[in-house]
Task: structure prediction
Amino acid sequence: MKGLAPLFLGIFGTFAFSWVGLTLIPNWQIGHLNPQSDEEGTDIYPMPQSGMVQWGAHVYAANGCVYCHSEQVRADYAGADIERKWGDRRSAPRDYIFERPVFLGKMRMGQDLANIGARAPGEETSPSPAGAVPAGASVSGGTNPAASPGATAGAPGGASSGAKQSTSPAAAQAQAAPSVPSASPAPQSAASSAPSPPKSAPGASPAATAVASAGSPPPAPPSGLASPSPGAMGTTAISSGAQPGTATAPSSGPQIAGAPWPLQTVGLPPMYSAAWHHVHLYSPRSINLDSNMPSYRFLYHTRRISDARSADALQLSGSDAPPEGWEIVPTYDAKCLVAYMMALNQSHPLKEVKSAGAAPGASPAASPSPASGGQPPK
Amino acid sequence: MNPAGIPLKEPSVSAAAGDTEQFERALIDASTRVPVLIFYTSAVAWLILGTLLAGFVSFKLHTPDLLSDVSFLTWGRVRPAHMNVMVYGWASMAGMGTAIWLMARLSRTVLRYPLLLVAGAGFWNLGVLLGLCGILLGDSTGYQWLEFPSYAAIILFVAYTLVASWAVLMFRFRRGEQIYITQWYLLGAFLWFPWLYAAGQLMLFVVPVQGVLQAAVSWWYANNLLFLWFGAIALGTAYYMIPKVIGRPVYSYHLATIGFWSYALFSSWTGMQRLVDGPFPAWMVTASIAATILTLIPVATVGLNHHMTMQGYFPLMRYSPTLRFTVFGAMSYTVFSLVGILISLRSVARYVNFTEASVAYSHLGLYAFFTMVIFGSMYYIVPRLIGREWRYASLIKLHFWASAYGIGLMTLMLLAGGFLQGFSMENPSLTFSESVESILPYLRGRSLAGILLTVSHFIFAYHFGLMLLGLGRKSTVPTFLNPVEAEGAEAHI
Result:
């Protein structure tokens, strides 16, 4: 090649082409989205994040959560995300307009977290702007220890959760009721699950069934739920056997909340509640034996109990429990991190995206009705 | 375009003119000694540190409780620390060292303004060190390959400006009209990188774009860094080393032209395929997938060109360490691109998008392709800077085989494991933990591969250290991997 001009021009030209094409034009196209609202200007989604949530995002980045967890739900034709109950509709650009940084993620050594906040049992601690899901739902999901996908499907189906609800706000209220019945399907589903592979800890199952609160929405503050008896906690292991990780509750309906990934265990705070997240961060394998997540104990203090146990002390059992007279409490970073997770909630419908619930055809199992619970995973 | 114009057509030490030329070259080499060795030494130090971090990351991934109670040793911090040390500490510094040397040689002029480079290396090291500490202390930004906090990024940028301005100055003082292929790639790399880095920093941190676009910019940055910075340096180096070692001009200048421009055009448009089916307008992803497929053109032309150049000279790989590493790297470029195309297709990406397969892909690009080519160039360049030959052929052989088997095994493990993980993840009748469990055995295999790579890097560092201490062989003949049986065996086989 003779002559510098063509070389330099070419070098600049090719790169400018890519820069304009892949960053500037998209920025022009989707870089200035506003929140959506209904005609009256209410029901705004998404909402700006609170300060704690923003700091939580920083903690999330600092500790590299993004290297194992994605925060995006693909459309039903593009992956099994919706079937795994990671959301009931695909994620859209508008879901992320207030997030900075955005953690779409590119690896799933752990669950997708796009809707982790939507799975929370009650309002309580969740700072999520969108207002999360009504209680009860997730809990019921937890019911069956068998953990098998089928099982989970059953319970949750009934209980259905937030996501679904939110899809159609009106429906939301209705759902509360269904949750109760969910108790019954659970057993069957458990049975059906038998063939399923989970290596649940043998003894674990039936006894363990924390089942618990299926019917009773526990809006109580997390710590309030404090589990019953320490003795019970021992059983935790069980749940883990159940193989939660599996979240995947494969089958059914759009209920996110129900998709128990780790199952509800006796003695633990309701799944996906803030208190539960703290226990999980502190000791992932006390909740799910097969979890591959490192523990984040450095986000917690151990301290002597001065007067009374503080409200946010972790409810730990077994070998994780602090010695008598001591308690383990989250640091501010841990609280922010959990606040951040509780705020992850894409269950609000978006005009530009059709929800799976709205399209029954999407996946057979996904059919919207609570009844769907019974369907076996395909 | 007559091949005689290509400076590489080497009159192998015959004519009297050859003597002047050799003398001149020796002068140029000597002038590059200090800056290039500074870059190389720092790079090797970072390589060792990065390797240790990598081993730690790899083991922790299947043994999550290992040292997880210490905040700065948690997996989520060590992993970005490893990646950034490798990308900015090892790969960039070694790449710049090689690029500086090549630039001086090809400009046929002694290196001017060495202080610019020395200062550049100093600042660069400082930047990487600060960035590393920042990540370990919890200041990571969370964007792939841009994790360094802003205070480190600024220092890196200053350092880079020093190096790049040097490169452009050198280019201005070049002698001879002909601009050799390698110089296209190097100039490209030197000019693309600052734009890329500045654009990435500006659009993510200074004037952040909204929402998901941050992810798009971050992938655009990461992919272009891989192609336009590392890839361009490695290809440029291969275009120099292969013809140089075998003493034969590049097969076709036209092919090289096509290869270069199609490379610049298509590979710069890749990146969005990593966001397949994410919350983006479909055209972005589709454009990148199309561009990825079109990279077949540069792959084919560059590959063909190298192959035809080597035609008949492959047996030389038995002797020349440089040639062996470089050819391995050049072949890996083809494999790297083919794997890239495979995992970008929508029907495949659906399964492997969120799995370890993408890690295999980055390692193919950054290690099997780039790092191997750079190792090759270091085996060529270091003796010319120090005036000693590599001491032990056996160590070079060990280094090569441990690296080659290590990276081969790692890629296979991660690809196979990634596909398996992806298939179980896309099968909702399996629980999610089963998808994670399905890959654990492969991750253990990967740790094994990591041990091989660790061994190879320690061997290399030891050997390099010997050279630095002046303990190389005094000889006029380069170190061959195997004894050359017959006189002139290296000339034609």
About this structure: The longest strand of chain A covers residues 300-304. Residues 67 and 107 of chain A are 6 Å apart (CA to CA). The two ends of chain A are 61 Å apart (CA to CA). Chain A touches chain B through 95 residues (CB under 8 Å).
